[in-house]
Write a structure and sequence with these properties.
about 650 residues; alpha+beta; 15-stranded mixed beta sheet; 19 helices
């Protein structure tokens, strides 16, 4: 078996084009090959052409030439004859049914030069050089001289793969000339036989490592807490397209951070509230009495409350946001943070790595120059293959001195504080013992983002009112889906009313069934949504769920004149408000923060706010969806976790 060496062609502007039926030409000695190139150069120079490509056909060789002089075509025709020179546009066909090909954007000439003859396989195996491939003499009119080339045993110029090579025989195999689409084959040095074996070993080892790694990832998928359909989809994807599924899973496949659930038996009194028992078993801080709650009536009230809280900070100021925009409200907010930092107040700002991605670097430099500590929560480009890029911190929280808190569904940007007729949102201010739990939550997120040890829990703040409030955090760092469990427990225990407002409604099957069953057993279930949200895919995905709810007897209301971004539920005398939407991403992927208000006064305040919003809404019109729309909805729901 001869050594396969692809000889480089320095300084000669031509490429080698291979036919579809795999023709090849070989040279026994490199000096013969170089002499052949010399003749090609001399030929091109003589006729004022640049060699564009060299093409081997069934039994002829051709040069594709680009004329550089006006008389190039005439000279070629004179020396080679009309029969051997033709113009090529986008499609060229050689007369005599020898060859046909396509060359994009190429205009030039084709010159037929050499008749070729096959190599006898037996002669090649026996090492008889004289019986090797004979490149017969050039056409007599081409250069006026004849040359003879023979096939070497050790080196050759190879144009594509040849079936005869694999059998130990070289040369140009015979075949019928037929039209085909050519491709360019580059030239370079190929390894010797030992290098080929090493290359094969590397391929085998790489394949084995890839298979083992894919198997490990499939095991990790099976251990994750997911819906069976999602698990099956990941496994099939991993087996069918591992080169695409493996990096995608490493980037966004993780749903929980691998925290092991503590094997602790939580015993509660038999007469305890079921929801309280659930939250205690999940490790959520208990409800705190003695709090003061202030609900913000509109965007202006929310903005004033946020600025007052920042201005009142004397010992510490901690801000956690999903989105901070570089606009009028955002710049005023940044300016106030800088002022507090210059006044000597320690200011920490925790921003989500994707939500605040569009914040300008100049604004970040401005904050840090003033002394504000700015940290990104799971940055997009920082260790993307840890599987956490899909897990976002959607919490909104501002804390002053660990005693007063501002929270809800608002980010810091102009639209979140606009008039209700444009943008309707919900936020609130808290003061009292529950602020200590919120401070501990912020410290935990800050330590995670900075990869620092967790600080000691802050002392419980002094009472400031008479409201009972309990925080309900959820996210990948908790072993259970706390928010989803809370909603299911509250919905199944509801006896009078379930009123909910959310911008995006793409629930899981369990929550959808809980709402339908509540409506069927006589509970007044009312769902308020924007008629058109700022996420078109979420509107398409919700349509199937809304039809099912309407058929079950749920009162679905749509607000036509504003984007409703509030997130709240009123279940009997329990009020729940915060940052979480009623969609799969908020329930199972994002870091979210909701507050559970147990006092009747807070439930009444939320009920009045919902009543004002409901007065602006219209009834949802139930209509049968055509088949094409159901198909579109089904396709969008395949990506429901990412909406």
């Amino acid at each position: 078996m001869p050594r396969r060496a692809r000889l480089s062609i320095p300084g000669i502007p031509w490429h080698i084009i291979q036919r579809g039926n795999n023709r090849s030409v070989c040279f026994y000695a490199e000096e013969d090959y170089q002499l052949y190139l010399h003749y090609l150069e001399e030929f091109a120079t003589k006729f004022g052409c640049v060699i564009y490509a060299y093409v081997l056909m069934t039994n002829h060789a051709y040069l594709l030439l680009t004329p550089q002089r006006a008389d190039s075509a005439a000279l070629l025709m004179k020396h080679l004859g009309q029969r051997y020179v033709q113009y090529i546009n986008h499609t060229y066909r050689r007369s005599g049914k020898i060859w046909e090909g396509r060359f994009r954007s190429y205009r030039g000439l084709c010159a037929g030069l050499l008749p070729l003859h096959r190599v006898e396989p037996g002669a090649r195996r026996n090492g008889d050089a004289s019986a090797g491939l004979s490149l017969a003499s050039y056409h007599a009119n081409a250069l006026g001289k004849a040359s003879r080339f023979i096939v070497p045993q050790d080196q050759y110029l190879r144009l594509g793969r040849n079936d005869a090579d694999r059998q130990g025989a070289g040369g140009v195999s015979a075949g019928r000339g037929r039209s085909c689409r050519c491709r360019v084959v580059s030239c370079g040095e190929a390894p010797e036989s030992s290098d080929g074996m090493n290359h094969l070993t590397v391929v085998h080892v790489s394949l084995l490592i890839g298979v083992l790694f894919t198997a490990l990832l499939i095991g990790h998928i099976l251990r994750q807490r997911r819906a069976p359909a999602a698990t099956l989809a990941w496994v099939i994807f991993m087996l069918a397209l591992p080169w695409l599924a493996v990096p995608l899973y490493l980037a966004i496949g993780t749903r929980k951070f691998g925290l092991r659930e503590m094997l602790t038996v939580h015993r509660v009194e038999s007469n305890s509230d079921p929801l309280e028992c659930l939250l205690v078993s999940a490790g959520v801080p208990p409800d705190r009495g003695g709090n003061c709650v202030e609900w913000h009536a509109d965007g202006d009230a929310a903005w004033s409350a946020l600025r007052d809280l920042i201005a009142s900070a004397a010992q510490s100021l901690d801000i956690m946001l999903f989105l901070l925009r570089d606009d009028a409200r955002g710049n005023a907010f940044i300016q106030q943070l800088c002022e507090r930092a210059r006044a000597g107040v320690p200011v920490r700002l925790l921003l989500d790595g994707i939500g605040a991605l569009l914040l300008s670097r100049r604004a970040v430099r401005r904050l840090r120059a003033a002394g504000v500590s700015v940290v990104w929560f799971i940055p997009l480009l920082h260790r993307p293959f840890r599987g956490r890029s899909n897990l976002r911190n959607h919490r909104k929280l501002a804390l002053a001195d660990g005693q007063r808190a501002w929270s809800g569904g608002r980010n810091v940007a102009a639209e979140y504080f606009a008039a209700d007729v444009v943008w309707t949102d919900l936020s609130y201010t808290l003061a009292g013992p529950v602020a200590s739990d919120l401070q501990a939550l912020f410290n935990s997120d800050w330590a995670f983002a900075c990869r620092q040890p967790l600080q000691a829990p802050p002392p419980v703040s002094a009472p400031a009112g008479d409201s009972r409030v309990q925080i309900v955090p959820s996210g990948p760092r908790l072993s259970r889906d706390t928010l989803a469990e809370t909603l299911l427990t509250a919905c199944y225990g509801a006896s009078r009313r379930i009123h909910a407002v959310t911008p995006y409604f793409v629930p899981d099957d369990a929550l959808q069934q809980a709402l339908c069953l509540a409506a069927r057993r006589g509970v007044a279930v009312r769902l308020i949504l924007p008629q058109r949200s700022n996420h078109r895919l979420a509107d398409i995905a919700r349509a199937r769920y809304l039809r099912e709810l309407a058929i079950a007897g749920v009162c679905v209301r749509l607000v036509p004149d504003a984007m409703v971004h509030a997130k709240a539920l009123l279940i009997d005398d329990l009020a729940l408000a915060g940052s979480a939407n009623l969609d799969l991403r908020s329930l199972f992927l994002n870091f979210e923060l909701m507050c559970l208000f147990r006092s009747p006064a807070d439930a009444d305040a939320l009920a009045q706010w919902l009543a004002r919003l409901d007065a602006r809404a219209q009834d949802y019109a139930l209509q049968r969806a055509p088949a094409w729309r159901e198909l579109v909805e089904g396709l969008v729901l395949l990506t429901a976790f990412q909406i």
